[in-house]
Specification:
Elements: E1 23-28, E2 33-40, E3 68-75
Antiparallel strand pairs: 1-2, 2-3
Length: 77
């Protein structure tokens, strides 16, 4: 299997597996107020080396930001 632009199969190689964990949580404080939390790649796992389009990782499968968190507050009125 290849990703990116492939000019020949002589450079194909096996890439190690990669597993990351995401987490989402939501809590309804009142009928009109909700808090949402999300974490992506919460253990900050680095991808295996796979040179794709001159990058040391496959950017279609890995976010270079690594571990990210977000918090959202929703209020209905």
């Amino acid at each position: 299997m290849s990703a990116g632009t492939v000019y020949g199969t002589e450079h194909d190689r096996e890439v190690d597996s990669y597993l990351w964990f995401d987490l989402t949580a939501s809590y309804q404080l009142t009928n009109s107020l909700r808090i949402n939390f999300a974490g992506r790649n919460i253990f900050d796992k680095k991808p295996p080396l796979a040179v794709v389009d001159q990058r040391p990782y496959d950017s279609s499968r890995y976010n270079a930001a690594g571990r990210t968190f977000s918090l959202e507050v929703q209020y209905e009125f």
